Amino acid sequence: MKIKKDDKVVVLSGKDKGKQGKVLIADPKAGKVTVEGANVATKHQKPRKQGEEGGIIKVETPMYVSKVALLCPKCGKAIRVSYKLTDGKKVRVCKKCGAEF
Question: What does pTM read for this prediction?
């Protein structure tokens, strides 16, 4: 999976199309990512302990990685990623501007 935790991404489809946010959780096995401020669901939570409050809370839910695109830190556009070997390390490269990150 080319998208990792703490990457900045843009949502390509769905109700949150066009929203930008940081990746909170990346799950390569399921092929899903959780993006900050996107795909938010309301959850009704019961109080579990004495003194704890229940209520309706908002939770970011996972979405398929194919619905998001990585944002290039240099050109600021939604990009595709290629890889390049630099000093024996695999580095991600922007297909549009060639910036390494």
Answer: 0.85
